[in-house]
Design goal:
Structural class: alpha/beta
Oligomer: single chain
CATH topology of the largest domain: FAD/NAD(P)-binding domain
Distance between the termini: 14 Å
CATH architecture of the largest domain: 3-Layer(bba) Sandwich
CATH superfamily of the largest domain: FAD/NAD(P)-binding domain
Strand content: 15-25%
Number of strands: 19
Largest sheet: 7 strands, mixed
Length: 493
């Protein structure tokens, strides 16, 4: 008889783990409080403008296509994407601008041209980042970090013999500042700390490996928007027999003598052999396991950054912009102090601007653009986000207008605003933190909640709030780890 698995939440990790387990012969049912799948990875429209609601950066597409290969299906029939020639455009307030090309040689040539940084220096930096990734990926990204057997391996020995390579005792900023002379280039590479919601002045120098992921794999754009990742995986899951229950909020995870046996929802109780929570681990314990003792130290960890996002319908096109654009702050250190130490308003935030209509013209009317404008902020702790959002809006418009030399305000014809409070309400992300716990400590990877718990049998965790971390690639990897853990545990029964 097939073992039954219940998945709480249909975010990207929940969808992926349901696919993997269905392929292994499990009876899988997913429960979702919203009326749609995807969690943060969803979309909406305002008039004639379409917007991806959440994640806007697509890297490591093989983690998505792998799921279709496992199912014996041709991904091209369901999901199309292409590699970007330009990874990102960067702008500084002193008039400096830089086009980060996806192709390595073009990127290095442009770095030397704009920043007067020898190509050799940057190339060696990226090779070192690759080495960090190669030494750690099998340990920290592809397996459970909290199983003894992970560390009893040749890969572990290799990593231990080259600890110096990881630059654990340096911050990411220190590692970058020692590698380059250009303040602009240092700031550009410091930015990668924001990929997991961390502070480059605190997070470890090992995080230079994030640059490798982008430089080695490139950045991509889905033909029908980021939401098509969700739609394609949702369709695959259904074809494999996964059942979905939408508008069904889970109220409690049922536990009997330390063994998880199912869930209680707003529409009744459901039994299962295994339960996987794709819900933020904080809310999983606080809301769904009220009678269990939570792992207090893990839940008390500093949260990652959050964001204020503006979705603007713009009645104009801007040829100097591409899909991904960054407008840097003048004082990067002060910006991160505002986010993580002061937990306060930042007078000069770095602005991220994504425009999917550059590659998918149907996302906006002719001659217009759909602007996804995001700034990193502190997580929610009772602030008046209505007031803060409107203050940020004025600053954002003024900065972009100054850098581009074109009017913005008068061309905004539609708007929607998302704050950390909204993010928590809609996605159950604790305090609106986008990536769960931050990675600001040297050994943050070891402090993240495992993909299982020894205290409750048959309960597992996936998604951005647990190992190996936040962002689409890490969430997909967490689903792979969980599916393998369940398969191995099942064999031991």
């Amino acid at each position: 008889m097939m073992k039954k698995v219940i998945v709480i939440g249909s975010g990207i990790a929940g969808l992926a783990v349901s696919i993997r387990l269905a392929l292994k012969g499990y009876n899988v049912q997913v429960f979702e409080q919203n009326s749609y799948p995807g969690g943060k990875l969803s979309s909406f429209s305002i008039k004639d403008y379409r917007f991806d609601a959440g994640p806007s950066l697509f890297t490591m597409p093989h983690l998505v296509t792998e799921l279709f290969k496992l199912a014996g299906e041709d991904v091209k029939n369901y999901f199309e994407f292409s590699k970007k020639e330009i990874a990102c455009n960067y702008f500084w307030q002193d008039g400096t601008s830089f086009t980060a090309y996806g192709e390595r040689k073009k990127f290095l040539k442009e770095v030397e041209k704009i920043f007067d940084e020898p190509q050799y220096n940057v190339d060696q930096y990226l090779k070192k980042a690759k080495k960090k990734y190669d030494l750690t990926s099998s340990l920290f990204l592809e397996q459970s970090l909290h199983k003894l057997k992970t560390f009893i391996s040749l890969d572990t020995l290799k990593a231990l013999f080259q600890l110096k390579t990881f630059e654990l005792q340096k911050s990411l900023h220190q590692a970058n500042a020692q590698s380059f002379s250009s303040p602009h280039l240092i700031q550009l590479f410091d930015r990668y700390a924001t990929y997991n919601g961390s502070d480059p002045y605190q997070t470890s120098g090992i995080m230079t490996l994030i640059q490798h992921l982008e430089s080695a794999y490139g950045t991509f754009v889905p033909k029908k928007g980021m939401v098509s990742i969700t739609e394609s995986l949702f369709g695959l899951a259904k074809r494999l027999g996964v059942k979905f229950s939408f508008d069904t909020g889970v109220k409690e995870i049922k536990v009997n003598l330390g063994v998880v046996s199912g869930i209680k929802t707003n529409s009744g109780s459901f039994s299962s052999d295994y339960v996987i929570s794709n819900m933020d681990v904080f809310h999983t314990y606080k809301k769904l396991l009220p009678n269990e003792i939570p792992p207090i130290n893990r839940l008390k960890q500093e949260r990652s950054s959050s964001a204020v996002i503006f979705y603007w319908g713009i009645k104009q096109s801007f040829p100097d912009l591409d899909l991904h654009n960054i407008f840097f702050s003048k004082n990067y250190k002060k910006e991160f102090q505002s986010i993580f130490k002061e937990m306060n308003f930042c007078e000069d935030p770095t602005i991220y601007l994504s425009i999917t209509s550059k590659d998918n013209p149907s996302d906006a009317p002719d001659g217009c653009e759909n602007w996804y404008v995001m700034i990193n902020t502190h997580y929610d702790s009772g602030h008046n986000w209505n007031d803060l959002a409107h203050r940020y809006k004025k600053i954002i418009i003024k900065k972009i207008e100054k850098i581009l030399g074109q009017p913005i305000k008068k061309n905004i014809i539609s708007e929607k605003i998302l704050s950390p409070l909204n993010i928590q309400e809609r996605t159950q992300s604790y305090r609106g933190a986008l990536y769960g716990p931050s990675s600001n400590q040297t050994f943050s990877a070891f402090h993240r909640h495992p993909n299982f718990t020894n205290k409750l049998k048959n309960l597992y965790f996936c998604g951005g709030s647990v190992h190996p971390g936040g962002g689409i690639p890490m969430c997909l990897l967490s689903s792979k780890i969980v599916s393998e853990l369940i398969s191995k545990d099942h064999k031991c029964i």
